[in-house]
Write a structure and sequence with these properties.
516 residues, alpha/beta, two-stranded parallel sheet, 7 strands, 24 helices, 63% helix, disordered N terminus
């Protein structure tokens, strides 16, 4: 009896002790979070750190510390604390590997540490291959870097019937168009149906409709969308699109009115390329409706800005042929100018398939070394983020003096050219060279730049074309981490045989071959 009573007493003492330990732990957790909620973060952290000093690998206390950092909005220390839990690899029902990896990935995403974010979301997929949060983030990060096939791979497992976010369907449409899948319209339509007031979804859907000759529907949506655009740059593009819908419907009087609106916006903003472009449109539609003489001043204005533009020159020659009775309206001229073909090609020239990505707003302005983390199949190729090598573009941009000049020589040699002489360069971030091929059949100008996500303007390209003329060169190379403004893209379209742009993936491939 006495022994039995002793056992009961011991059990009771142990239970009481455990109760106080648990109660004490709960009280400290509550007190720490209460202090943090009141803004007393120093004391809150001190309470938790006191326990971590005694047990540094306690994942519950580490999670508590991360929550305090979260309340403090110190996202970097919150992520670092969660990284410690991840390194320990001790999980339970509350602290799961999916929760930890996704949380770290989200925090790094907020901090714009996109490589770290991408890496942790990839780790999530090892535990839960169809985790929607991870797949969405990985898909959008890949798409932002123009990694369309990777983005398609990550988006594929996501059930479309569970998605109600227009951005998801815009992304799917951009991927479909970029990879020539042929079903981009259905995705843009779904984005539009989810939010018909969103200008981006409306614009992309209207472009997709125009591609399948539904010009009236495209025109209706574009006109409604126009009222919600508040920037002149996008407004110019939208009015240009509306103009081309009228043209496709052979309503050239309405097309002419829209061309005048484009010209008005271009002149207001002093956009030289767009002034020339809109002037050409005005002249084209005037000639189409028979106002041949009135087209003269607009052709002259266009020619003054872009004297080497073949489209403007051909239109001016056609106008002259009409005036001199050497061409019959509605029929091809003796010089081979066919007004009907020119009109039919306007829409595809102004709105090629890559326009979807350009207008989607999904392109990242930050270079992320995704291909250093995953393979073509989206599988992780490094075990630790510390193994991620320095992006070759970053290394290229860091070169100085003779080291930069040496890599410039290698780039020029890669394209089978030799340096004839160095040309003046008034920018501190690069060098210009006049080059020639071994057989001297081609002379070129190379503009090699240490850029980081720069937008090349039409002015820069116009200057390059002038450099070519001054040096009797036939082609110009631009090498740098850059993209083109809308105006520059149009200059490129008109001078595809004269300008070669080496950027993006092409630049990465080139530098991987030339930089150790």
């Amino acid at each position: 009896m006495i022994i039995a009573l002793s056992v009961v007493v011991v059990a009771l003492v142990v239970a009481i002790a455990l109760f106080f330990v648990i109660e004490s732990r709960l009280n400290i957790m509550d007190r720490a979070l209460a202090l943090a909620a009141m803004g007393n973060f120093v004391d809150a952290r001190a309470l938790v750190r006191e326990r971590l000093d005694a047990d540094p690998d306690n994942t519950k206390n580490l999670l508590l510390l991360s929550k305090i950092y979260s309340l403090e909005k110190d996202f970097l220390n919150e992520a670092s604390t969660l990284e410690k839990i991840k390194k320990l690899g001790r999980y339970d029902k509350e602290i799961t590997p999916v929760y930890i990896n996704n949380k770290i990935g989200d925090l790094y995403y907020k901090l714009e540490m996109f490589e770290e974010s991408f890496f942790n979301y990839i780790d999530t997929l090892e535990f839960e291959p169809e985790n929607m949060e991870a797949l969405l983030r990985l898909g959008f990060l890949s798409l932002g870097q123009k990694e369309f096939k990777l983005a398609e791979r990550y988006f594929k497992p996501i059930p479309e019937d569970k998605m109600n976010n227009p951005s998801f369907f815009i992304a799917k449409g951009v991927i479909a168009a970029s990879l020539v899948r042929g079903n981009e319209k259905e995705y843009f339509q779904r984005a539009f149906d989810l939010d018909s007031n969103a200008p981006v979804a409306a614009f992309l859907y209207s472009i997709a409709l125009s591609k399948i000759k539904k010009h009236k529907d495209a025109l209706d949506i574009a006109n409604r969308m126009l009222q919600r655009i508040d920037t002149d740059e996008i407004r110019y593009i939208a009015i240009q699109f509306i103009m081309l819908q009228h043209s496709s419907l052979e309503d050239f009087d309405s097309a002419l009115k829209q061309a005048f609106l484009c010209l008005e916006i271009a002149k207001k903003n002093e956009w030289s390329f767009e002034i020339a472009e809109a002037s050409m449109y005005v002249a084209l539609f005037m000639i189409t409706i028979g106002k041949i003489e009135e087209a003269s001043e607009y052709l002259i204005e266009a020619e003054c800005i872009r004297p080497d533009d073949r489209d403007i020159i051909d239109l001016a020659n056609y106008k002259l042929d009409l005036e001199e009775k050497n061409a019959i309206p509605g029929q091809p001229s003796k010089r081979g100018f066919n007004l009907q073909i020119v009109l039919s090609e306007l829409l595809d020239k102004a709105f090629p398939d890559d326009k979807y990505f350009e207008l989607s707003g999904l392109r990242s302005t930050v270079s992320v070394n995704i291909r250093g983390i995953v393979s073509d199949e989206g599988e992780k190729i490094i075990n630790q983020l510390s193994m991620l090598g320095i992006n070759k573009i970053t290394k290229f941009n860091s070169l100085r003096g003779v080291h930069f000049k040496n890599i410039c020589s290698k780039i020029i040699a890669y394209y089978n050219h030799r340096i004839k002489r160095e040309l003046p360069c008034y920018e501190s971030d690069g060098l210009n060279f006049l080059t020639y091929t071994k057989d001297e059949n081609e002379t070129a100008v190379f503009k090699i730049r240490k850029w980081k996500n720069i937008k090349i303007s039409d002015v820069f390209l116009t200057e390059l074309l002038q450099n070519l003329a001054e040096n009797s060169a036939s082609v110009g190379y631009i090498v740098g981490d850059s993209d083109l403004t809308l105006g520059a893209k149009k200059v490129m379209q008109l001078n595809e045989d004269k300008i070669i742009l080496v950027n993006g993936k092409d630049l990465e491939v080139l530098l991987n071959k030339l930089i150790p």
